């Protein structure tokens, strides 16, 4: 039901009314004192006990039934009126006629026509309290009377309910307290407080007369950017955009004609600096003594931030919709497997139209062997153990083909934690699946090839070593038989054959070691590089002219100890072998570099030309030009292969005549 009084004052929002409530709370104490004086007077004038009982019920604001409301209240010394919920007066006693000067027997009256214009905000607060609680008390405000200046009255009111306990009417007792000095003081305080509330309200408030600003609060000044002197007397059209003028004038005309009670609309205002501010405007017309439109009271709320947020949300929504529609991934919303919404990519991946796919469930295009795994994940989501899970599964396309897809399923839950629907994202991985199968086949083939090569290397090693051992044995026998020969050339040739056979055996052993490294890391443990290097110093042949030192204790790494031994043995042997100085020096050290150790093996040998820095790590590559030096050309290739096995790096810094430093970068054991 539209309440006339409520509509007239609905310009104030709930938060704004609450602000007034807090201020008016302090005023109640003053009203209480006035009420005591008037209550004593009314009790003295009560004539009969039954009438006194009814009067007391009204004074205490107890709600009356329809039957009780039929009693005649003309006897009451206080003014009594009864209205419908639109404010039209249905009954009034003689005391009310004497106070107000109006008589419904002569002409109809509506209480909204009696409320003093400056008390509108207070009136709407009290009327809402009456509708909410069924009663209000200690209402003190000014009212217009038929003759003379406005009067200050005190009102207690309550609702009357029908047999279904629905509010039907309102009734109240009115007391004229105009002459009370305490009340006059209260009025002054109330005006000051209300003025303060209005002036410091967080929303703009303006009063206009025929479009000209008469009053405005500080919030409106700050909102619009003008000073008080600039705003005083300003035409309100100055900060209204031209495109809004016609619409706003139409609202004002409708209000003047009585077609609407108040206006509520959105618009933009132009600030002094030209910036636009979005506002929500609630405007109502305040009539003069003759009921003709005189003022317009507007409450203006700055909603710029809300508008911007709304625009941002809308933009993000459109962006998400664009992503959804144009995503290469299939996206679907489902309710327990029943499809609710799908994008075009989802349809294209399965070969259905949107209408066809929405008539299906996920079970209709899922292979039986995939149902168990997806079912387990869904049950965990229902129990709240997880909110999403991922699996690879096969889908049956409309044409009978198979789609291999990575499927992500996420739960969207309500406030109680129950699943409202599922978001399903599928990614076509058919090509990756095919490539994976090919890769696995190649890896299997490679494993077989490596195994065959390892076996072949061992067989070749055995087959080559046997004749070499025979050659070495025969040469040894021949040397014994020729011990007494004086021909030095024969002994030289026999030594050459024996050395060549030994070198050939070293070469075969190197090839076998190199082939075994490719089989991968069999085990990893914490290995003390310091212990490995010191052990090698004890076993390697170090000529007397070479001094080998360890700069500081070397750290531990995580690796296969045999591989670490092979790595440093080859580097140390290489450094010792190429020390051609009278006083050779080999130093082993390390530094820390982030998550790695960088080991260094430095010698003062003949050095390596820069163009060979990469080449020397190849198999059978050697820069040896001295026949007295033993080199198979495999040692550094073994080093490179071991370092690669542990995702490390090996490199060198060298120049002819300045020595060589090999660097090995390996991960720390975290």
User: Tell me about the biggest sheet?
Assistant: 6 strands, mixed
Query: Which structural class do you get from the secondary structure elements?
Result: alpha+beta
Mean pLDDT: 79
What is the radius of gyration?
Answer: 51 Å
Helix content: 40-55%
**Unreliable parts:** 1-14, 45-55
Strand content: 25-35%
Distance between the termini: 76 Å
Could you tell me the number of beta strands?
23
Overall geometry: elongated
Number of helical runs?
Answer: 19
3D architecture notes:
The chain has 670 residues and is α+β, with helices and mostly antiparallel strands. The protein is built from 19 helices and 23 strands. The strands form 5 sheets. Strands 1, 2, 3, 4, 5 and 6 form a 6-stranded mixed β-sheet that branches. Strands 8-7-11-10-9 form a 5-stranded antiparallel β-sheet, with helices on both faces. Strand 5 (151-161) and strand 6 (167-176) form a beta hairpin. The chain is elongated, with a radius of gyration of 51 Å. Residues 1-14 and 45-55 have low confidence and may be disordered.
Short description:
With 670 residues, the chain is of the alpha+beta class.
Q: What layout of secondary structure does this protein have?
A:
Elements: H1 4-8, H2 14-44, H3 49-59, E1 64-65, H4 66-69, E2 79-84, E3 89-92, H5 94-100, H6 120-133, E4 135-143, E5 151-161, E6 167-176, H7 181-199, E7 204-209, E8 212-216, H8 218-224, H9 228-231, H10 242-256, E9 262-270, E10 276-287, E11 293-302, H11 304-326, E12 330-335, E13 338-342, H12 344-350, H13 354-358, H14 368-382, E14 388-396, E15 402-413, E16 419-428, H15 430-481, H16 488-517, E17 525-528, H17 529-539, E18 546-550, E19 556-559, H18 561-577, E20 584-593, E21 596-603, H19 635-645, E22 649-654, E23 660-667
Parallel strand pairs: 1-5, 18-20
Antiparallel strand pairs: 2-3, 2-6, 4-5, 5-6, 7-8, 7-11, 9-10, 10-11, 12-13, 12-16, 14-15, 15-16, 17-19, 20-21, 21-23, 22-23
Helix pairs in contact: 2-7, 15-16, 16-19, 17-18, 18-19
